[in-house]
Amino acid sequence: ELPKIPIHSITLDSENLTVQAGKTVSVKASVNPSNASNQDLFFSTGNAKVATVDQNGVVKGISPGKTWLYA
Q1: DSSP code of 21?
Q2: Which of 18, 29, 30, 59 has the greatest number of C-beta atoms within 10 Å?
Q3: Spatial contact of 52 and 44, defined as CB atoms under 8 Å apart
């Protein structure tokens, strides 16, 4: 069996996003190292009343405010 290579970091293609309520923006995530054994990512937000995110990285604005995006 090949040795497992862990993920050391995840980089998003944008540090700051502005998404209006009812609008969407896509976020792309890169896994480092790129040859990590398991590259499955799960997205979530810190406050679903402000924005939501699906597992494809599509962020939807819900209401005014600030929140964090986690991958």
Answers
A1: B
A2: 59
A3: no
